[in-house]
């Protein structure tokens, strides 16, 4: 790759079927995983194959193929074939690669930036508009809005509280596991709890959301994995997707996508609240105007 700083960056688009497939990889059994591996490596072939041919090629039964297709939201094999055919696109230049110790600053910059851009592009493709609308409506009407996140997700939770506070949403953020549980226990049917977890498997955050649900609150999650403990608890599910690379132990690309979802919710709620949000913004700006030099 050229080291010139003005090189154009072209980002490859991950097909929707592949995004969905990768989101469930971690929960597939051995047989379904063989189907997944075959699909990932033979997209062009599958559109011309019968279910029997695919099953034989993957070394599984036809019933396993059908179960796999249903995990991706299709009624059967034909639905998968249609999805694959629709997403066959020319291969574009892709530089979303592993960072190497031999990379110079220009290469590191492009790989990190492209990873973030790609996470945004892929996430906007899989984000369900109906789920977004449900989340916006719930937050706009909430008597109290709790936001939970631990570790890196706590930073996203803090950002969310900051935004929603400015438009007059009575929001609180909890990045301590005990405080999460305590606040969740005091919620009711008029309240909303949002939990942020990249893995969807952080026990304390999942348990806090479960408590909120038991109290009758509307529960929302932002996570990377469709099949995860937090997804089972949440009434409303919002997903991010990204391909993490070396040095991305804190899910860097996913963090960008999470922030974009928070921003979308914020703008949607502000518009839903109308003049009330506008007046709150004015009041907040007036309150802090004297804080600057």
Descriptive key words:
Rossmann fold; 293 residues; single chain; disordered N terminus; five-stranded parallel sheet
Roughly how many Å is the radius of gyration? 22 Å
CATH C-level of the largest domain = Alpha Beta
Q: Which percent bin holds the helix content?
A: 55-70%
CATH homologous superfamily label of the largest domain: Glucose-6-phosphate isomerase like protein, domain 1
Rounded mean pLDDT is 86
CATH names the topology of the largest domain as Rossmann fold
Q: What is the tally of beta strands?
A: 5
Spatial strand sequence of the major β-sheet = 2-1-3-4-5
In the CATH classification, which architecture of the largest domain applies? 3-Layer(aba) Sandwich
**Overall shape:** globular
Order of helices and strands: HHHHHHHHEHEHEHEHEHH
User: Given the helix and strand composition, which structural class is it?
Assistant: alpha/beta
Largest sheet: 5 strands, parallel
Query: In whole angstroms, how far apart are the ends?
Result: 45 Å
Brief overview:
This is RpiR family transcriptional regulator. By secondary structure, this protein is an alpha/beta fold. The protein has two domains: 16-86, Orthogonal Bundle (Arc Repressor Mutant, subunit A), CATH 1.10.10.10; 126-291, 3-Layer(aba) Sandwich (Rossmann fold).
